């Protein structure tokens, strides 16, 4: 009996105008997606070419410093660390162009005269620090809609409403619901049959559209896929299924609660608008006002004040009260240690403010994301971005890995320096480190890894949404009248 109801529901859906609208719109959207992201000027090919140029420049930078000496490499650092562009941006763009494409290893003397600071008899290059560039393209990026899989997923949740708003209310109004219930069939079987009918009607054209989309992208040859990408795409199809299922159950709930289909549609549209637009926007704004963070200018002023206080304490530019009156040389290890103490405190101050500022921003973003996941649409979006490794979460993971690389690079310098018996082993003073060249191939290479930790929690939330809406739909239908 369940399959009879399912087939009847599918047949009914196939003869409606909403199905004709969906079957026309879906291929067009997937075609537009393939053309924009595989052939467009801002597609993967453009991004990966730019990334490869950055990587090549980074290799040249490391080789140039390593050929001079380990000390020179230690002070100049490994250079800029570019973020690897995602091959699956077409699935979940995640406003990826708003996110910085790299973190920078900035030499402390880059803004001073000739890259160096000087006392009367000593010139030095302050060691590098990790800095996070700001992004200034917000205005232009927000002006255009991204036709990615997330956008299509939001549209599919709307179609799920259109295919279920009259599933029970319409049958009740036509008098056919009482006829169905007069047979030896339970209400649970009726609800399951209608659920399967709507689910198959929506997912089969969706899967066909996805296959067409992937075929076009593969034919273009601009986005190569590895086995890991295929697994992630399969996971995204599963997310589509969970997401659509939530709104089918929601539609069945409202359809069973009201007396006519029009009332059901009105309530469903209001609910969908709130879940898709109102709640995410309002809650995001609320979090921003609830937990304001210092501006970039405020943080910069505090950092400069701390650095000035440190400069007043050590007076590196000389003077009768300077703790650093003597130049750091191989013959004067005590002076080298004093300079190392000053440099270390300077690095710690810059790192504390640089890391602290972006950590506050990340904390605010994470709080907003946690709260806005009250909407299954937002949860679906975040899960898709997590699998695609795009958006702010991808950048947050990238920054964490860049920090670990920072420690790995410093450990490498110290370990290599220990192997030189002629070195004073005083980091991070140039004169206190090995003056011998180092093999560029031995320098640690940054490798970005994808983290799926957040995705698992979001999948769990989507499953929970399904269970919750299934229960309320089932209970609502059990207590509703059939006439």
Give an overview of the whole structure:
It is a single chain. By secondary structure, the protein is mainly alpha-helical. It has one domain (1-132, 145-483). Helix content is 66%, strand content 3%. The protein is built from 16 helices and 5 strands. The protein has helices at residues 2-14, 17-39, 44-68, 70-76, 138-141, 149-162, 169-174, 176-181, 187-220, 227-257, 261-290, 296-314, 333-372, 376-388, 391-418, 453-479; strands at residues 81-82, 102-107, 117-118, 123-124, 128-131. The protein has a 3-stranded antiparallel β-sheet with strand order 1-2-5, with helices on both faces. The chain has a two-stranded antiparallel ribbon with strand order 3-4. Helix 9 runs antiparallel to helix 10. The two termini are 21 Å apart.
Radius of gyration: 30 Å
Q: Mean of residue pLDDT? A: 88
Structural class: mainly alpha
Show unreliable segments. Answer: 109-115, 136-143
Provide the spatial order of strands within the biggest beta sheet. 1-2-5
List the helices and strands and how they pair.
Elements: H1 2-14, H2 17-39, H3 44-68, H4 70-76, E1 81-82, E2 102-107, E3 117-118, E4 123-124, E5 128-131, H5 138-141, H6 149-162, H7 169-174, H8 176-181, H9 187-220, H10 227-257, H11 261-290, H12 296-314, H13 333-372, H14 376-388, H15 391-418, H16 453-479
Antiparallel strand pairs: 1-2, 2-5, 3-4
Helix pairs in contact: 1-9, 2-6, 2-9, 3-4, 4-15, 6-10, 6-11, 6-14, 9-10, 10-11, 10-14, 10-16, 11-13, 12-13, 14-16
